[in-house]
Amino acid sequence: AQSVTQPDIHITVSEGASLELRCNYSYGATPYLFWYVQSPGQGLQLLLKYFSGDTLVQGIKGFEAEFKRSQSSFNLRKPSVHWSDAAEYFCAVGALNAGGTSYGKLTFGQGTILTVHP
Amino acid sequence: DGGITQSPKYLFRKEGQNVTLSCEQNLNHDAMYWYRQDPGQGLRLIYYSQIVNDFQKGDIAEGYSVSREKKESFPLTVTSAQKNPTAFYLCASSIGTSATGELFFGEGSRLTVL
Predict the structure, then answer these.
(1) Closest residue by Cα to residue B96 from B49, B40, B36
(2) What is the rounded average pLDDT for all residues in chain B?
(3) Is the pLDDT of residue A94 over 90?
(4) What is the pairing mode between strands B87-94 and B109-113?
(5) Are A43 and B106 a contacting pair at CB < 8 A?
(6) Nearest residue on chain B to A34, judged by CA atoms?
């Protein structure tokens, strides 16, 4: 079974500073990886996803993530954080069904809460 | 606009009562999901359905029940057998057996047991 670990429960950065949120996964085959963001009391919004090809993927709101198979990691980065980026971030890995195609049954990490200081 | 609507947003329940959370989508998605969110534990899958009149248990199905009589609707019942039902519940949908696996989420329902 797949699993996801987000080592950092809470990260605090200053506005304008760079950001990296860590994500490590465990999965026997090629993973389908996602980053979602959640504002307080809201649902989750997809930031970006990786399926294959270029290991550096671009997402919305200026975020990017890099897939490193050798390290089983899919870290999320942003060069300059804005106060509106304060939220909780979730990394997730997608499962494959018997037919070899993915569907939306995801395994999520525990989440990382991002606080941004002015 | 297309999306997922969950209701109610807040719900209070006395111990021993069953409650039903509503989830409706107009995205024409085949698959629907219920996740439970607790602080520091991420999201855990309760039930999912890939097609009408069919659904499967997720990782924490005990004490919950679902139905999928219509493509647009996937209600979740939290029964009195659920030992710790206070949580934030998220409904989601996806296109189905596509290669993307992207989930679209509702805004959630917060259940508090008094």
Answers:
(1) B49
(2) 92
(3) no
(4) antiparallel
(5) yes
(6) B102
For B87, name the nearest residue in chain A, comparing CA atoms only: A41
Q: Could you tell me the end-to-end alpha-carbon distance of chain A, in angstroms, rounded to an integer?
A: 41
**In a mutagenesis test of the B interface, which of A32, A52, A103 is the best target, namely the one with the most B β-carbons within 10 Å?**
A103
Q: Which value, in Å, is the radius of gyration of the alpha carbons in chain B?
A: 13
Q: Per-residue pLDDT tens for B49-94?
A: 988 999 999 989 999 999 999 999 999 999 998 989 999 999 999 8
Q: How many residues would you count in chain A?
A: 118
The fraction of chain A above a pLDDT of 90, given in percent, is: 70
Which chain A residues are Cβ-neighbours of B96 within 8 angstroms?
Answer: 103
State whether A104 and B101 contact (CB < 8 Å).
yes
In the predicted structure, residue A27 carries a pLDDT above the cut 90: no
The answer to whether residue A100 scores a pLDDT higher than 80 is no
